[in-house]
Design goal:
It is built from 6 helices and 4 strands, in the order H-H-H-H-H-E-E-H-E-E. By secondary structure, it is α+β, with helices and mostly antiparallel strands.
Length: 183
């Protein structure tokens, strides 16, 4: 049993949640070519999360409407998030498929996403905080962050979405193909 994972399943210190949110702001700002990232300092965590949702919606909408290279932005989002996932994997000492899925569920719960996954790699998001903020095109772009977090946490796994809540589906559905060797 992974003791670190068991502890964070029960309690994540507010400073850790805050650092995760600040990392998301930084990675997202870098991906969109912003010189500096907005901050959630001085805000409650819930206000910071709402500010992050508004920030990502605005940046993604602007990029799409301006005809920017959305694939390049997706690549930068994915890569920045992959590094975050790798750091999380190391901190939590994730070492099995089951632990990858548990760690994903715990991490996403911190930002208002109800995610469940199984050993076969099936992922279902029953509730997503961000779905109230994003239209389908924005969600499709920002989901590169999910792909990156999953890749880093699983040591190279590939997360592929089959549907999103923002498309009108009851839940988001995806499959995480985890490499045969354990992370």
């Amino acid at each position: 049993m992974n003791l670190r994972l068991a502890v964070v399943a029960w309690y994540v210190p507010p400073r850790v949640k805050r650092r995760m949110l600040e990392d998301l702001f930084r990675v997202t700002a870098e991906a969109f070519g912003r010189a500096s990232a907005p901050t959630s300092r001085g805000l409650s965590f819930e206000e910071g999360l709402r500010a992050y949702a508004a920030f990502t919606r605005a940046e993604a909408t602007r990029a799409i409407e301006d005809g920017r290279d959305v694939e390049a932005i997706r690549d930068r989002l994915r890569e920045g998030a992959r590094r975050m996932g790798e750091a999380l994997r190391e901190r939590l000492r994730v070492s099995s498929r089951d632990e990858v899925m548990r760690a994903l569920a715990i991490a996403y719960r911190q930002i208002g996403i109800d995610l469940a996954g199984d050993q076969g790699g099936e992922v279902i998001v029953r509730r997503c905080y961000f779905s109230a903020f994003y239209r389908p095109e924005v969600c499709g772009l920002i989901s590169a962050l999910d792909e990156g977090i999953a890749a880093g946490l699983s040591a190279g796994g590939v997360l592929v979405f089959q549907g999103h809540i923002t498309d009108g589906a009851e839940s988001c559905r995806a499959h995480l193909d985890i490499p045969e060797t354990e992370p």
